[in-house]
């Protein structure tokens, strides 16, 4: 989830029980999210239908199954004390490998023109407590639209989204889990100012 450059990092110790791989992200609301996911699929990105459109807060991280309750409590405390903020998406950008000693999978993304500070603030809070971890690169909030594709396809994605524009308010963030089928699915929504997370089955779960 999440920032594909750092996928599957942060492995937990083997405790004899499965350690789910989780991510935390700001979902991009429809119609913007559905549109960008369809564009990603149109470029032939095999991850298009496995990763909902998002802005990463916590990249893929393995945690012991018995630590998920503590993780949810941590995320709920963050959401309870935060307030909505606005994001403006404008145009496209690129991550490209900078040297053979710092390999980075090439990524084309939609850039944030407003809301970067809000994302950075949330990301710093999420990557604390039970989710404390280091990242190999500085945090750069973005929305991936093409990942590790042939150069000509990456260039086409960059050009076709160069004039893209969308505005929305961030209501909170979601906890995702990586399924055995390779698909990332939201498990809980953490709404700013709310006292408990919302399960994706419609029920509110206290923490």
CATH homology superfamily name of the domain at 4-86 and 116-136 and 168-199: Cyclic phosphodiesterase
Mean pLDDT: 86
Count of helical regions: 4
The CATH class of the domain at 4-86 and 116-136 and 168-199, by name, is Alpha Beta
Query: Biggest sheet: strands side by side, in what order?
Result: 2-1-7-8-9
Helix content: 10-25%
**Which percent range describes the beta-strand content?**
25-35%
Major sheet characteristics: 5 strands, antiparallel
Order of helices and strands: EHEHEEHEHEEEE
State the end-to-end CA separation: 24 Å
Shape: globular
Structural class: alpha+beta
Low-confidence stretches: 2-15, 202-207
**What is the total tally of β strands?**
9
User: Might you state the CATH topology name of the domain at 4-86 and 116-136 and 168-199?
Assistant: Cyclic Phosphodiesterase, Chain: A
CATH architecture of the domain at 4-86 and 116-136 and 168-199: Alpha-Beta Complex
Q: Provide the gyration radius in Å.
A: 17 Å
């Amino acid at each position: 989830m999440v920032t594909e450059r750092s996928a599957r990092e942060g492995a937990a110790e083997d405790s004899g029980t499965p350690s789910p791989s989780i991510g935390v992200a700001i979902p991009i609301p429809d119609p913007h999210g559905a549109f960008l996911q369809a564009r990603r699929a149109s470029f032939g990105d095999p991850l298009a239908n496995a990763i909902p459109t998002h802005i990463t807060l916590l990249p893929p991280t393995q945690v012991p199954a018995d630590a998920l309750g503590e993780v949810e409590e941590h995320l709920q405390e963050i959401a309870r004390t935060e307030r909505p903020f606005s994001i403006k998406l404008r145009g496209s950008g690129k991550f490209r490998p900078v040297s053979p000693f710092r390999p980075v999978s090439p990524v084309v993304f939609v850039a944030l023109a407003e809301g970067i500070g809000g994302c950075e603030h949330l990301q710093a809070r999420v990557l604390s407590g039970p989710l404390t971890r280091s990242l190999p690169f500085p945090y750069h909030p973005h929305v991936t639209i093409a990942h590790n594709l042939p150069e000509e396809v990456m260039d086409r994605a960059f050009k076709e989204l160069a004039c893209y524009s969308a505005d929305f308010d961030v209501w909170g963030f979601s906890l995702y889990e990586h399924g055995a089928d390779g698909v990332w699915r939201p498990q809980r929504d953490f709404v700013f100012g709310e006292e408990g997370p919302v399960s994706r089955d419609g029920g509110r779960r206290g923490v």
